[in-house]
Each structure stands twice: as structure tokens, then as C-alpha cells.
Design a protein that fits this description.
CATH topology of the largest domain: Rossmann fold
Largest sheet: 7 strands, parallel
Bound molecules: flavin-adenine dinucleotide
Structural class: alpha/beta
Number of domains: 2
Number of helices: 8
CATH superfamily of the largest domain: HUPs
Number of strands: 17
Mean pLDDT: 92
CATH architecture of the largest domain: 3-Layer(aba) Sandwich
């Protein structure tokens, strides 16, 4: 059990790769700023890497008051052992009350190692954060029991209170150019001989991955499309709009489209300007991944489908009648006169 009085301040782990800060870290600085202001404590970023000092300016611009910097060749590549030692050294020295990480593969790996070593609590995959201004208790909420309820998790006895937060659910602040803060440079006596993991080679994945989390328009299809051929309708509509293709888990599991396109709790969280949900029932596990979209338009033949509770505009009807009309309408509007072709109903 920690002496709670000793811990003060909100921290964000600043994830960076090859000198570029992960966007989720900027989003967490925005969320962390609100928590720190509510508590009346400073917001800090912890930055670890090699030749990453110039990134501190960006961390200040996005809201941090303090940057703790560990800059040494041993931190060139992310390794659990080196990074967790730096983080634990920093936590034990400066004692933050709240510590946030992006729920990325690096953030999840690091946060769980740090939480285990410090014997403190960690809420994984958080989608909402708040803090009790008086007690300082972090209220970290996330979907639980298959997404049917939101659970708010507290860590009452130990510090820091840690959480990993899904990318794209928090908002980064507008950067304030020239905003500065306190830069604290730390060193760690750590040699390669102390570390069991060696990075021998970096092999880049050259496969072109779908980045639906960055799309402005998404046309998403579900089980209502009936078959892989039927799902082609979604691709055709997306092509006309210059949109990315999304999918429900059931469409992915049916083998109609790759998992990288899955939107939802076990897929990607997306925030496009426009999201079309076609033949998707609107299960909570899907909704949590797209409900922050600017405009949601649903097409479903069941007027009682749950998706109609979560959309701005709903069209009740058969996707195979409505979508070809939309394709034609948009093609005309966009000055394209190609024939409407689609996989057809099965
Ligand atoms: C732990 C867990 C995690 C999960 N994670 C995810 C996730 O990340 N993403 C996700 O999507 N799901 C996820 N799910 C699954 C989720 O619960 C639903 O089963 C899934 O979203 C349903 O997919 P669907 O809407 O495509 O299919 P269905 O629920 O079968 O809905 C199909 C819809 O299409 C409509 N329809 C049928 N024919 C037509 C037509 N011709 N025209 C128009 N509409 C038509 C029907 O009325 C119906 O509403 C998860 C479930 C669990 C338990």
C-alpha cells in the first residue's frame, strides 16, 4: 500500500518512434491536462529514446508543464526492460498520482510491466477518464462483459493510478507554439550487459495496411450483405465516395473482408466525418468503435434495429435497393456516369 500523500501530478508516457510522437500521446496530453487542472497539479510527459530531446517542445505545446527526459543510445529501440527501468526510476523519484499510456502494443506492454513491478493498479483499454477533485481518485471507465456495461475502475490504495487509453477516443488540444515548461533530464546507469533483450535487426512490414482510423469517410458493411459477393456493394459505394471500407465483426468472421477493416471493441476505433453503417444491427461492441463519428447514416431493413438508436440519419430498406440508388446519385453528382455494378443479392 502506498502513502497516497506522497504522490502528486498527472503523467503521460510519450510514445515515439523514429523521432515522431504517436498521436495517442498527444490525445492523452489533452485528457491529462483536464485531469491535472481539475486536481490543481502539474501535467508531465515522460519521454524516452535516443536523440529525442527536440520532441520536448512538442510535448509542451500540447499541454505539458514538465518533461522528464531519458535520452541515451540504450533507448534507441523500444525494449520492455530498458523502458520499464527508466519509467520505474522516474516514478520512484518524482511520484505521480496518475499515469496514462496509449493502448498501443508498446503502451500495453510497458504499462503492464511497470504495474507489475510497482504492484499498483492498471485499467486496460480505457475509453473515459475523470478524476475526483478532492480525493484524487482516477475514474477509469471501459466496456466490460462483452461491452454490455461500462465499468468504472478505481485504484484506491496504490499509486500511481495507471490506465492505458484507446487511441482516437480522447482529443488532443490545439498546439500552442512557443509554450514552454520545465525540462528535467535524467540519466540511468544501465549498460547493454544489464539487458537480456538485444535488437538484432528491424524488419519492416511492407504490406500495405488499411488505416481506417485515419479515414474521413467510412462505408461499413455487416452480415446483412448476405455473402462475400454481396459485400462488393460496400466496396463499390466506398469507391464512388473515395471512402474507406469498414466492417462488423460478423462480416469479418464470415471471411468477407480482412480483420484490419473491423470496427468496434475488438477492432479499430474510428472517428470519420461520415460513417455509413449498412446491414449492421448496431450491437454495442460495434457502436463503441464508431459512435464518435461526425455523421452516422444507417441503412437497415429492420425498422427496430438498434443501429437506428445510434445514428443521425436512418434509412429503413433493403441495402440492395438503396445503395445502388445512392451510388448512382453520387456518381451523377460527382460527374461520373459509369454503370452501377455490384455483386448482387444472394
Ligand atoms: C467480446 C465481444 C467483442 C466483439 N467485438 C466486436 C467488434 O469489435 N465489432 C463488431 O462489429 N462486433 C463485435 N462483436 C460482435 C457483436 O456483438 C455483433 O455480433 C456484431 O456486431 C453483429 O454484426 P452485424 O451487425 O454485421 O450482424 P447482425 O447482428 O446479424 O446484423 C445484420 C443486420 O443486417 C440487417 N439486414 C439484413 N439484410 C439486410 C438487407 N438486405 N439490407 C439492409 N439490412 C439488412 C438485419 O436487419 C440486421 O440488423 C463482439 C462481440 C463480443 C461478445
Amino acid at each position: 500500500m502506498s502513502n497516497l500523500e506522497d504522490y502528486k501530478g498527472v503523467w503521460v508516457f510519450i510514445e515515439q518512434k523514429e523521432g515522431k510522437i504517436a498521436h495517442v500521446s498527444l490525445e492523452l496530453l489533452g485528457a491529462g491536462r483536464k485531469l491535472a487542472d481539475k486536481r490543481g497539479v502539474p501535467l508531465a510527459g515522460i519521454l524516452i529514446g535516443h536523440q529525442v530531446k527536440p520532441l520536448a517542445d512538442e510535448v509542451f505545446a500540447y499541454g505539458a508543464d514538465i518533461v522528464y527526459l531519458y535520452d541515451a543510445p540504450i533507448f534507441r529501440h523500444y525494449r520492455t526492460e530498458t523502458f520499464m527501468r527508466a519509467v520505474i526510476h522516474c516514478v520512484e523519484t518524482y511520484k505521480p498520482e496518475i499515469f496514462l499510456y496509449g493502448a498501443t502494443s508498446t503502451g500495453k506492454d510497458l504499462a503492464s510491466a511497470v504495474a507489475t513491478d510497482l504492484a499498483t493498479g492498471l485499467t486496460a483499454d480505457t475509453t473515459m477518464l475523470d478524476v475526483d477533485a478532492d480525493t484524487g481518485l482516477l475514474e477509469a471507465s471501459r466496456p466490460a462483459f462483452g461491452g454490455n456495461i461500462m465499468a468504472t475502475i478505481l485504484c484506491k490504495k496504490d499509486r500511481p493510478q495507471m490506465a492505458t487509453v484507446r487511441p482516437k477516443v480522447m482529443k488532443a488540444l490545439e498546439p500552442q507554439k512557443g509554450r514552454t515548461g520545465t525540462l528535467i533530464e535524467e540519466t540511468l546507469s544501465l549498460g547493454e550487459e544489464d539487458i537480456r533483450t538485444k535488437v538484432l535487426e528491424i524488419v519492416r512490414d511492407t504490406e500495405k495496411k488499411v488505416r481506417i482510423d485515419e479515414a474521413d469517410i467510412i462505408v461499413a458493411g455487416g452480415k446483412g450483405l448476405g455473402s462475400k459477393e454481396g459485400f462488393q456493394l460496400i466496396h463499390q459505394f466506398a469507391e464512388v465516395l473515395g471512402a474507406s471500407v469498414g466492417a462488423s465483426r460478423d462480416a469479418v468472421e464470415a471471411g468477407w473482408i480482412d480483420h484490419h477493416h473491423q470496427v468496434g471493441q475488438t477492432g479499430v476505433t474510428v472517428t470519420p466525418k461520415i460513417y455509413f453503417a449498412i446491414g449492421i444491427s448496431g450491437a454495442i461492441q460495434h457502436i463503441v468503435g464508431m459512435h464518435n463519428s461526425g455523421l452516422i447514416i444507417a441503412i437497415n431493413k429492420d425498422p427496430n434495429a438498434a443501429i437506428f438508436q445510434s445514428c443521425h440519419y436512418g434509412i429503413v430498406g433493403d441495402a440492395f435497393e438503396i445503395v445502388p440508388m445512392l451510388i448512382e446519385g453520387f456518381r451523377e453528382a460527382l460527374g461520373k456516369a459509369e454503370e452501377v455494378q455490384y455483386g448482387g443479392k444472394v
